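Re-run requested by the PI after the first attempt was lost when the workstation crashed. Everything re-entered from the original request form. Ligand of interest: zinc ion.
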Amino acid sequence: MLCPPPIAAPSSLWSARRAFLLAAGAGAMAPAIAQVDVGTSSTLRKLIPAETLERSAAQQYQQMMEQARSKRALAPDDFPQLQRLRAIAQRLIPHTKPWNERAGQWRWEVNLIGSKQINAFCMPGGKIAFYTGILDQLKLTDDEAAMIMGHEMAHALREHARERLAKTQATNIGLRLGSQLLGLGDLGNAAASLGGQLLTLQFSRSDESDADLVGLELAARAGYQPEASVSLWKKMGNATGNKQGGLAFLSTHPSGPARIEQLQANVPKVQKLYEAARKG
Ligand SMILES: [Zn+2]
């Protein structure tokens, strides 16, 4: 259920305009049921149609999985750690739709790549991958793995990539590519270029904090212990000194005291959801 925009008073231009802006942002607003306090996504992301981005992401994801398979680094369906991740996803997915209407139609996928890297992602459209390094080096419990998955799903649900890419297009390339993205030019090239950019995307700090909170709530609703978000980021913090793991994820996900404090402060807000999910 999405939060409806307030009804504009017809006499007020300001409120009519504001209602329009709110309606335009409705795709990634926080749902009315949300317990954590997060804002509305930027309307600038509309510069890139969601379908175009999801299609590019699916292509990029498939290529990455093919590459991993050709190096014998893609976990087979019966691999226990992969089965564990897919079971976690099955519990989280039913709680995603209130955060993004489109998620109801996403073809969610979860794969595990054999690599020492501490890394995990969820591309637009629900394409998830974990690297064995993040499970093994951090010795993640199911609750902690669910917090990472919830965090990554939240980036996709809240359309952070779409917003980042839209901002990049708007500032660097301008209207020419913008018109391509809107379907007036070579869509194939634009889609390929978007897919490539997904791999090097840097989220902002506010995206990160947004994903932490939305992920925390998703995981709590799925019956995963909220306190695990805190233990997870403490483990991440400790792993930062470990060069062997590859620092890609850790450098884009700094685990400082501010991050841990924010999660700690939000644990009580979702504790009842967790308890209700455990009872149900
Ligand atoms: Zn993140």
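Saved to the shared folder this time. The first strand starts at residue 109 and ends at 113.
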